[in-house]
Structures are given as C-alpha cells and as structure tokens.
TrEMBL record:
Pfam families: MucB_RseB, MucB_RseB_C
Ranges in a coiled coil: none
PANTHER family noted in UniProt: PTHR38782, SIGMA-E FACTOR REGULATORY PROTEIN RSEB
Organism: Halomonas marinisediminis
Keywords: Periplasm, Signal
Record protein name field: Negative regulator for alginate biosynthesis MucB
InterPro entries reported for this sequence: MucB/RseB_C, MucB/RseB_C_sf, MucB/RseB_N, MucB_RseB
Length: 323
C-alpha cells in the first residue's frame, strides 16, 4: 500500500489557506521571484466574488496565524490545530490531529505556478488562478455569516460541467482567510467540511514571500490521452526510491480541483488490487498496464468524480504509440 500512502500525503488537506476586475496592485509578473505581502493593506475591500477569491489566495500565503479546527468527513468528526508561518520568504504550514490516529502533517512551500515553464516562464498562481477557474466554475457571493466568532462572507464555487466537484468557502471579512470550507459532490451534497473554531492572532507578514522559479517539464515515457477541459500538468515532480522502487508522480489541476497520477514498474513495488477504491472523500483508480513491454501499475487519485479518474487512467499510453 505504499503508493496509497504517498497519495494520501499529497491530498491531506492542511487547509492552511484555502487571487471583478483583477486587483492590479497584487499582480505578480512571471519574472518576479517574490511578493510583498504589505501590498494587501493598500487594497480596497473586494466587491465581487472573484475579487474575494483572489484576496483569499493571497491571504493564504501572507498571513501568520494559529488556529483550532474541526474536520467533518467520512470518519466522523476530528479536531486539529494548525499554524502558518513565513520565514525568509518560505511558508511553513503544520496540522496536528488531536483525536483518532496520531497524525502530524507539515508543508514548506513558496507561491507556486500554474504550469511548467514554456518559453522560460510560467504565470504565478495568485495572479492567474481566479481568471482560470472562472472558465470552469461559477463564483457567487451568498451573504454574510458568523464563523469562529468572526464576520465571514460565503463564497459558492459551482462547476459548469460534471467533471469536477464544487466548493463552498466562508472567508474572513477582515483578512480574507478561509474560516470554513465544504467539498460538494455532483449532487451538491457536502462530503467533507473543515471549519476553524478559533483563529488566533492573524497577523500580516511584514515582508515578502518567495515565488517558485519556472521549471522545465520532465520528459515522460508515457502520454496522457485525455484530460477534462482546463486541467493541465503542474510543476510538481516526486520520485520514491524506497526499497529500489521508482514511482513517478505527476499532478494535474484546473486551479481548484486536483488529481495525482502515479506510474511504477510492477516488478519494483508492492502491487495494489486493480479497480476503483474509496479513500475517504478521494477515489483511486488502479490499473495494471503494459507500457512498451514493461508491466506497470497506474494509480489515478483525487477528490473528483470516479468516472473522470477512470477515463484518465484508461487513456494512458506509451509515448511511442502516439508518434
């Protein structure tokens, strides 16, 4: 089950951060390598759903805070503490569950990019993600509520097709941080909810946050035959060398929904049972495929409709077959 453990690590929602007319002062050019968080204090209050979502993404990078939270999901209710810090431009997030199996997840990161470099540059996520998801989701404000004893605006993000799930966010009126979020399936039913119960000492980082440098896409021996509209490969590359195995991981996203693809030679890993598996709110499709004479295990996993993951897995082919 090593591949599933790797997948779980990718998809565990630290939820340390949940960016109209675009907020011009907050735009970051592809050549920038840092963003000054103090610019957030110069912006007017957002007026549209898209403005609020853009602010939410910037706030998730720029605020330092501690919080208590609950997660309501397939395994019941679990409580946790989370924190987000910025040191020398690098973000550090930490989530620790207080009940159930002892689990601690940490993440060190910079502001990411929407894709691999093309022509030497790739746009940064906060500058382009709001426009990108507007092509595949409907963003709308749904009134004001009180969450964690703070004033919040509800933001509904509804998919425009059946290839992805929707979300509902409650954003802090003062900072733009996510106070609550729900993942919604194809029927609009909440399948998982995460909510802060206490937000402690949110303070804007008085400095800059680093932005990832553009990276060239790696060459893969296999080819993705089909992706839902709007999904593209992300600049995340991992390999597992444990016990001599060679598991290649690729990440795909439309700016909101995400799924992972894992490919590994069957002779170098502990094989999983082929088929569709349910892992909490995620689904995983396992296929054993022959890629250019090499028996491989293909795993496609994400918080998405199962039929989408099945189609992606079954569309994988050896690159030489398409040339």
């Amino acid at each position: 089950m090593r591949v599933f453990r790797s997948c779980a690590t990718v998809f565990v929602p630290l939820l340390l951060a949940a960016v109209a007319p675009s907020v011009v002062a907050l735009e970051a050019t592809p050549d920038n390598d840092r963003f000054d968080c103090r610019l957030l204090t110069t912006e007017p209050t957002p007026q549209t759903a898209r403005d609020w979502y853009e602010l939410n993404l910037w706030a998730g990078h720029c605020y330092r805070y501690d919080a208590h939270a609950v997660r309501i999901g397939f395994d019941g209710v679990r409580t946790l503490v989370i924190s987000h810090e910025v040191n020398d431009g690098v973000e550090r997030g930490r989530a620790r569950f207080l009940d159930g199996p002892p689990e601690v997840f940490e993440r060190r990161s910079r502001i990411g990019r929407l894709g691999w470099a093309e022509g030497g540059s790739a746009p940064t996520i906060p500058a382009g993600i709001a426009a990108k998801i507007s092509s595949h989701y409907r963003l709308s404000l749904a009134g004001e509520e009180r969450i964690a004893n703070r004033r919040a605006y509800r933001l509904d993000i509804s998919p425009l097709d059946s290839f992805r799930y929707g979300k509902r966010l409650w954003l802090d009126a003062e900072t733009g941080l996510t106070l609550k979020q729900s993942l919604l399936d194809e029927t609009g039913r909440a399948v998982e909810t995460f909510q802060l119960t206490v937000l402690e000492r949110p303070r804007l980082h008085q400095g800059e946050v680093s932005i990832d440098a553009p990276r060239e896409a790696p060459g893969d021996a296999w080819h993705i035959g089909w992706l839902p509209a709007g999904f593209s490969p992300q600049p995340v590359e991992t390999h597992s060398g444990r016990h001599g195995s060679d598991v290649t991981h690729r990440l795909f996203s439309d700016g909101l929904s995400t799924f992972s693809l894992f490919v590994a030679p069957l002779g170098e890993i502990e094989p999983l049972a082929p088929g569709l598996h349910r892992l909490g709110v995620s689904h995983a499709v396992v296929r054993h495929r022959d890629l250019d004479g090499t028996p491989c295990q293909v795993v496609v996993m994400g918080e998405m409709p199962p039929r989408v993951l099945l189609r992606v897995a079954d569309g994988l082919s050896w690159a030489a077959e398409d040339s």
